[in-house]
Amino acid sequence: MSTNNCSNPCYPNQFFQNIEGNLTKIVWAHAVNSRAKLEEALLSKDVMMLEADVVLGNLNNNTEMIPIMAHPPNTTSDLSLEDFLNITSNSRMGIKLDFKTDEAFENSKSILKNWRSILVKRPVFLNADILAGPVNATTIPLNATAFLKGANETMPESILSIGWTTRYGKEFNVTEGQYTVEQLKNMTDILKENSVTQSVTYPVRACFAAGNIDGIKDLLKNTTSYNSTLTIWSSKNDSVDATKLSELIREVGVKKVYVDVSKDLKDKLNFSGASAMTSTMVMNLGASLVLLALSRML
User: Fold this and answer.
1) Rg over CA atoms, the chain
2) Which of 25, 47, 87, 165 would bridge with 19, disulfide CB 3.0–4.6 Å?
3) Which backbone phi and psi does 245 adopt, to 5 degrees?
4) pLDDT, tens digit, 9 for 90 and up, residues 38-52
5) Are 254 and 227 within 8 A, CB to CB?
6) What's the whole-model pTM score?
7) Closest among 130, 138, 143 to 166, alpha carbons compared
8) Is the peptide bond before 73 cis (omega within 30 degrees of 0)?
9) Residue 233: beta bridge partners?
10) Distance (Å, rounded) from C-alpha 231 to C-alpha 256?
11) Please, what sign has the CA dihedral across residues 150, 156, 158, 163?
């Protein structure tokens, strides 16, 4: 894996030189919430980004409540946030910290501040679901203003990974849906209200993002912060229209889309070899070629 010293902030397309700007080539290790999973990921020759969940809970048998790496409803782990940062401090990998509650984030800020000088040397995503999303999601999102303000004060060099809570699956009788115009607008509005200037990536669930391609494209267009991107993710049993999802990735461009999905789904996607150009760029190129042809006829 070819890596390089980064500018500040550190963007993955700079840090991982071998991807040649194609963010879909980045390999993710998902839910790295234990020492065993972290060791496995660190030994991998392919993994570039480590994604882990942060909750407030107990480390081993200790009764003290501290930020640990675990996914709800779990509240115990053999890996604390402090340990995670320490173990990964000399790795060649970027990290994505997914904060599950306001309390987990609040109690993590001092830890992040202490590690800031080391963390800025590689890509760091601070992730949270800050708005309610499809389909009639009932999970309570984090406080949007508190997270955006806290992330900027704690680590302004980080990439904000901010999304929506979602509800999907047969247990909810929900097997289709999309991000609505209102939900997408709420996101850009909250960024404007909080004067966000940090780089932003929007984690969008594949099954819903594929249902509103134009809306997702408008979301990026209406985001004023620098270098906005998508992070497409999917759960194991999600039913995803691979054709529509491939279309979304091609329309947005591989230089602006991270793909954190299962290998089975990724193998079905048809964007390898696709140009990083957006549809607008293609139209402009077509117009240029027409003008060139006409000039030669004159």
Assistant:
1) 20
2) 25
3) -65, -40
4) 999 999 999 999 999
5) no
6) 0.89
7) 138
8) yes
9) 205, 260
10) 9
11) positive
